User: Fold these one by one.
Assistant:
Number 1:
Amino acid sequence: MVLSFVRYMRKQGEMPTPDKYLLSYKEFMSSNQRWAYLHLQVFRFSQAIINLRIGVRRNNSCLLQSAKFHPKELFYGRSHPHYRKYELFETLQYHFMPDEVKNIWNNNTTFTVSGHNSKGQDLDFLLEEKNRAVKQFIHSGSIPSNETRDDICSIRQSMSI
């Protein structure tokens, strides 16, 4: 969409700018409903992905909730009943939480291993990293016992790896 605007402006011999794009976008949107719909969808879902990434990285629960809200139409469009149940349950659960639990929830939406405040990850990714690190010490094809895993984890922790 932006590329077509830039090409059009170059044909006209004008320099494309963000201000001109927004003006032409508003004019063109009123005359071409299909383009307006595509433009809205692309920017809405792109922004949701950006919000999700930033929300996870910076442990920003408001941004994460916003990011979950917009792409849900993609899941509903194909009538996935499980996603509806998950979203409804999560929303109700959050709504009825006591305020002190909400504060804990909001402050611990994501976690950082490095300590850097813009390198947060969701818990499942952290657990996968830890699990992958533990598996490095287990022989391929063997099924480790709980004692073996405990030994590996305690050794790794004492080595501060």
Number 2:
Amino acid sequence: MKTTIELNDELVQQTMQLSHIHTPEELIRTALYEFLRKLKKRELTTLRGNVQWEGDLDQMRTTSDE
């Protein structure tokens, strides 16, 4: 998708310097990826306490796949 947006030059330059990202396009892709990852992680936390696990960790730790 192509779009035209106006970005804060100082913010872009500072972020590119600190992240060692070389182009604004790469910076935007990385920012979108990281934002999506954060949202998915937050979504996973809503499952806490809602999933019933019925396993035996001690058995899993000692069982071999061989």
